[in-house]
Model the fold of this input.
Amino acid sequence: MRTRARTTAFSAAAACLTLTLTGCGAGSASEAAGVDGETGTEDVTLTVATFNEFGYEELFEEYESENPNVTIEHKKAATSNEARDNLTTRLAAGSGLSDVEAIEVDWLPELMEYPDQFADLTDPDVEGRWLDWKTEAATTAEGRLIGYGTDSGPEAVCYRADLFEEAGLPSEREEVAELLSGDWENYFSVGRDFVAQSEDVAWYDSAGATYQGMINQVQNAYEEEDGTVIAAENPEVKAVYEQVLAASTEDDLSAHLGQWSDDWAAGFQSDAFATMLCPGWMLGIIEGNAAGVEGWDIANVFPGGGGNWGGSYLTVPTQGEHQAEAKKLADWLTAPEQQIKAFTAKGNFPSQVEALESEELLSQTNPFFRDAPSGEIFAERAQAVEITPFKGPKYFPINDAMQQALTRVDVDRTDDAASSWEKFVTAVNAL
Amino acid sequence: MAVTDRVRPATPSRQRRPQRPPEAVRRLAFSQRLSKWDVKLSPYLYISPFFVLFALTGLFPLLYTAWVSLHDWDFIGGQGTFTGLENYQFVLAQPFFWNALGNTFSIFVLSSVPQVVLALTIAAALDANLRARTFWRMGVLVPFVVAPVAVGLIFNNLYADQFGLVNELLKSVGLDPVRWHSDTLASHFAIATMVNFRWTGYNALIFLAAMQAIPRDLYEAATIDGAGRLRQFLSITVPMLRPTIIFVVITATIGGLQIFDEARVFDQYGLGGADRQWQTLTMYIWELGWGQRNFGRASAVAWLLFLLIVLISLANFLITRRIAHQGGRK
Done:
């Protein structure tokens, strides 16, 4: 989650600035070898920085026994935000990064601004290893590949079968998939039926989360490829914004919970909503928040076509002294065989084409979700992703401003859609 | 001085016998000079670690931040073109800046005033003859030891809008739940309670230390004159504590203008609310520098905040001096 310890910004700013100065120009010496150097000869210690659960613990041991010259040191951050702060601060400092740094797709765009900071990992051996959209997102305009994909976040719809039944809707997962297939308007219209039939249960958890699923299907939502900000003028953005807010407030389909808030987490226990958009990694979160609640299930469907939310990459920063060894390790870790093992260990859904066809993955079921065939469902959901939304360097702050705009109307109810949009435009213009 | 004076008379004799004495004189003079340096320089040397450290970790970043604020400066990309005061102009034209300034002052007032009053009361209670005195005195310091983020997590549970403990209690007695995360004043109040929880005990101990330095015969005289406890507190304790109160007010001001942790952990996004209801200046710095990675503008706000603190501290200092002249030496 987003909470974390921190000194005051003022002193942190001061510290970072000091680091910036001392760190200027560092790294030129270590760049000499690059990623094409020799491997397997010298004894090296590689540091690997990950966050949350990558499921790599056993894989590291395996790699060390296969490559006796390599010792791996694992630095694990508790949250991806912590990892992001660590990464950006040390990038700014010019030193201190691990040999292999894991990054999340959400902060990939801002790092794509500095491709020189990361080794070019293009290699004929890995061509075609990943789903196209996964590789495209990490490839610069000049064709540099800055990260090897690990997992991905293909989205399905998670729903409460028991609440569906009470409202007189079909509750079997195939029927629900059938019911919800179509565009977003269809998803909202089924929601209106549901809300009319049930007491006090909303259709989905929050406008912000639903918006996220919708906007990820828009190719250029906030920025043109050249970086021009179009968020405030783009009719597509405004249409999505208005559609989701009309559904959330006028039709009252939303449970008015801010995603990740304490209220949101508590809402799982109090039957506050019946559906939510869920990428593969969300299953664990639902299971944790809804412990003891029976009836959650997964429908193999996503309104408006496929969608992806989240997923990570392994990068090799050019600060590192052992880039060739680091690249070799990242290559090995992201190979389909290893990612399937990680999936079995921690449930991270692989982004490798071959892994998606593996029997081990496809036969996976999830007991909490009424034994839903989660492996098969998410494999199909991954194939359904058609659009790689363009996320430029300002994606993060613009999306934050948008989420605030939605929260003002959906959760806080301090604004209506029109006045909140005005504030969004002001915020975007202030970037 | 006395040492050098004693050496000087030897100088005329050097003209008569130029061969041997000069060396003796010089050796003497050198060791004398050493001890002279010792006397003159050592004190500075002894206090230098603080100033060297301060220069490195305080002054240098301060000046460097000023330098950064005059440029286009990317968090990772580093220095861009020199833009003069453009960052300041931009920031001052932002409604978000003024909003953050207002929030900062509001949270600061809501936290400092009750904090000082409460701390004074607690200190007066601790100053009385209690059993297990040390236990109680250490007890008030416990909240100060708890990490602010941990405090934030606990208070967030209390102040959750729909299922928080405070609102559940309010509902159970038939009151309307408070919208902690959407109402501006309510959010300031909630954050101020976190700040007060943390700092009241600390300030109480400072007051307590000062209270114990008040001559007891004043109280005895007052008792003989028939003054009650409240009257004694208001007419003896509070006036005698004036310098300490001012010290606490100044430190609370500086701390209050830099509120960050408590406000940042108040919701899951840490940006100060969807409508920036509780975004403080330090959080605005964070948003500019880390969220938008625009270090130039973040530094400009940091400097504006610094100037503001200097201004308020100066005002505080002037008031202190006046009060010290009035009341201190009566």
